[in-house]
Amino acid sequence: MSLEMESGTEVLEIGVARSEGKVVITLAGELDVAGAPVLREQLAAATRTEGRVVCDLEHLTYMDSTGISVLIAARKRLDATGRDLVLVGPSERVHKVLEITGVDSYFTIQPQGAPAEEDASG
Predict the structure, then answer these.
(1) What is the largest CA-CA distance in the chain?
(2) Digit-coded pLDDT (tens) for 71-118
(3) How far is CA 78 from the centre of its chain?
């Protein structure tokens, strides 16, 4: 499944794939107040399933505080079920936002294609 949300001049694309005991949500473009509600819905649905929840951020070019709050809320819901939200491959710009806001230590962050991604608890 793939969704698109217009955000100013950028489009946020959200792809959702379920396989091998996990849900992978792929984000591309800009995640801000315009796209946050759609991501919130997709993450809420993912937290109601079994298995790991992974957000692939490799093609996310921008994320503001609204996007961060959506990720934090999803992580809290998953924590309540003993699971983790894994963020994979954030661009340097997005990773910097996570660091500046201090939430990088709150999430499991994996580089794109890292073998450890499969071994993360969940």
Answers:
(1) 38
(2) 999 999 999 999 989 999 999 999 999 999 999 999 999 998 765 444
(3) 13
Q: What is the identity of the amino acid at 21? A: G
Query: From CA 55, how far away is CA 5, in angstroms rounded?
Result: 17
Tokens of 2: 């793939």
* Burial of residue 20, with CB atoms counted within 10 A of its CB: 0-12 exposed, 13-18 middle, 19 or more buried: exposed
For the chain, which residues make up each domain, given as ranges? 2-113
29-71, pLDDT tens digit by residue?
999 999 999 999 999 999 998 889 999 999 999 999 999 999 9
For residue 53, give every residue at least 6 positions away whose Cβ sits within 8 Å of its Cβ, in sequence order, or none: 22, 23, 25, 43, 46, 47, 74, 78, 83, 84, 85, 86, 122
Q: Could you confirm whether domain 2-113 is CATH 2.60.40.1510?
A: no
